[in-house]
Amino acid sequence: MNAQNFKNRNRRGTGWAGERLTIAKEEYAFLAAAKGGDSAAFETLCKQSANTVFQVARRVMRNKEDAEDVVQESFQQAFIHLKSFHGDSRFSTWLSRIAINAALMKLRSMTRPKPKSRPPGRKSKTTARIPNSSTPNRNGSEFFPTP
């Protein structure tokens, strides 16, 4: 980095700190608009974070197609729960955490064994038990007392 560039970076309001501050202000404005119901502002926030969220999802899923599904699920969950975002962190950080959770849930559902389906017409081993007059309940009285 040359001396002039370094000097410009250290001026007040310019450089890395100034860029971060500008980005944070823009993000806050988009976030406020999105919480107010502006879908275009939410779309802008998602587009700004999409690459990061995809990379996180791809690292967890190890598959491009599954990562894309996770990103889509993450955007849906973020939109549903946008009101609960308090702004303690960056929106992209919050969205990345949603993506990690969605990816882990997808992995869990993929590794869970699927229940075996019974062939049609075959009854299960458990059958409904119909009480009769000689079957007592827990307190010793009969279900159908004889008159």
Write the layout of secondary structure elements.
Blueprint: H1 3-9, H2 15-35, H3 39-61, H4 64-80, H5 91-111
Structural summary, described in words:
- The chain is mainly alpha-helical and 147 residues long.
- The chain has a domain at 38-112: RNA polymerase sigma factor, region 2, helix turn helix motif (Rna Polymerase Sigma Factor, Chain: A).
- It has 5 helices and no strands.
- It has helices at residues 3-9, 15-35, 39-61, 64-80, 91-111.
- α3 (39-61) crosses α5 and α4 crosses α5.
- The termini are far apart.
- The model has no long low-confidence stretch (mean pLDDT 81).
Task: Give the key terms.
147 residues, mainly alpha, Rna Polymerase Sigma Factor, Chain: A, 61% helix, elongated
Determine the strand fraction and express it as a percent band. under 5%
Indicate the CATH class of the domain at 38-112: Mainly Alpha
* Cα Rg: 29 Å
Order of helices and strands: HHHHH
Q: How far apart lie the N and C ends?
A: 101 Å
- Structural class determined from secondary elements: mainly alpha
Give a count of the beta strands, DSSP E runs of length 2 or more.
0
pLDDT under 50 segments (min length 5)? none
The CATH architecture category of the domain at 38-112 equals Orthogonal Bundle
CATH topology of the domain at 38-112: Rna Polymerase Sigma Factor, Chain: A
CATH fourth-tier homologous superfamily of the domain at 38-112: RNA polymerase sigma factor, region 2, helix turn helix motif
Q: Figure out the total of helices.
A: 5
What share of the residues lie within helices?
55-70%
Question: Which of globular, elongated, flat, extended, rod-shaped describes the shape?
Answer: elongated
